[in-house]
Amino acid sequence: MKRSTKWIIGIIVVVVIVIAGYFSFGGSLSGKQKAQTVTIGRVAPSKADESIWDVVSKQAKNKYNVTIKFRDFTDYVQPNKAVQNGEIDLNSFQTKQYLDVWNAAHKNSTLVSIGYTVTTPLRLYSHKVSNVKNLKRGATIVIDNDAANQARSLELLQSAGLIKLNNSKTPTPSDIVSNPKKFKITPIDANQTARQLDDVDAAIVNGGFASTDHVNLKYSIYKEPLTKTNEQYFNVIAATSKNRNKKAYKDVVKAYQTKAVKKQINKSYGQLERSAWDIKF
Q: Where are the transmembrane segments (predicted)?
C-alpha cells in the first residue's frame, strides 16, 4: 500500500472517531455547552399548554443543555413581580400590549419582551345566541377587568360593530362614545369569564381560560381579526432588561420558535391558537 493511501485511511479513521464521540453526547450541542437551568412563570397552564412546553423543554435540553423549570400562578400580577424581583428568570403568559401597560403602571418595572410565542385571537362567546348581530338590547357582556385585556376586549366589541370608542390607547367602559343597543358591559376577573356564560348573554374569554375551562368553539360568535395593529396582542416571553441577552434565555426562545413546537401548537389548540413568531403581514 502506498504511503499516501495509508495517510488518507488514517485521516478517515480519525474523522470517524471524532464523529462517534460527538454522537456519544446525543447528537446535539448539549454535550459541549455548560448546563443551565431557567425557571419560567406561567399562568394556569392547561393540558394543551403543558404539551407545548414539554416539546420546548426537550428542544432546550437536547439542543442547548438548558433545563426548564416552571412556577405556575393563578393571576396576571404575580408572574411579572416574580421576574422583576428575581424569584424566577422569565415568564410566558402575557401579550406585548399587557406588558407595555404593566410597565407604564409600574415605574420600577424593567421587563422587556425577548421573543414571540403564540397568538390567541380573542373571542366573544355566547350560550344564548349564535350570531353577534342577535344580541338583544340591554344584553349583558362580561369582559376581563385588567387594564390591558379590558382595552382589548372593548376594541373587539368595537370591531364587531357593537360599540364605538374614543381614541384612548387603553380604553375603559367610560371611553365608550356610542352604545346603540345599551349593552351592559361588565368587567370581571379573567378566570371567571368562562364560568359566567350560562348566566350572561355573552362573554369575552381569554384563550388560556377558554382552554382551561373547556369552552367549546361552537359558542364563538365573533373572533378578533389578525392584523398588523393586533400584533400588540402576540404573546411574549419576558425578562428583565439587564438579563435580556443572557445566552440561556435566548436559547429558550430559540427552543420555542421551532417547527416541532409549531406542530405541537397546531395539534393541541387547532383553531384556538397559532404560532406568532412566523406571522408575516
A: 7-25
Between CA 220 and CA 52 the distance in angstroms is 24
Same domain, yes or no: 244 and 116: yes
Instruction: Calculate helix-pair angle for 47-64, 247-256, nearest 10 degrees.
Output: 120
pLDDT > 90? residue 212: no
Q: Between residues 16 and 111, which one has the greater pLDDT?
A: 111
Average pLDDT, the chain: 90
Cβ distance 39 to 45 under 8 Å?
no
To which H or E segment does residue 248 belong? helix 247-256
Last residue of a domain, one of 187, 209, 225: 225
Provide the residue range defining the domain that includes 67: 31-120+232-275
Closest CA to 65 of 38, 90, 35, 37: 35
Segment (H or E) for 14: helix 3-23
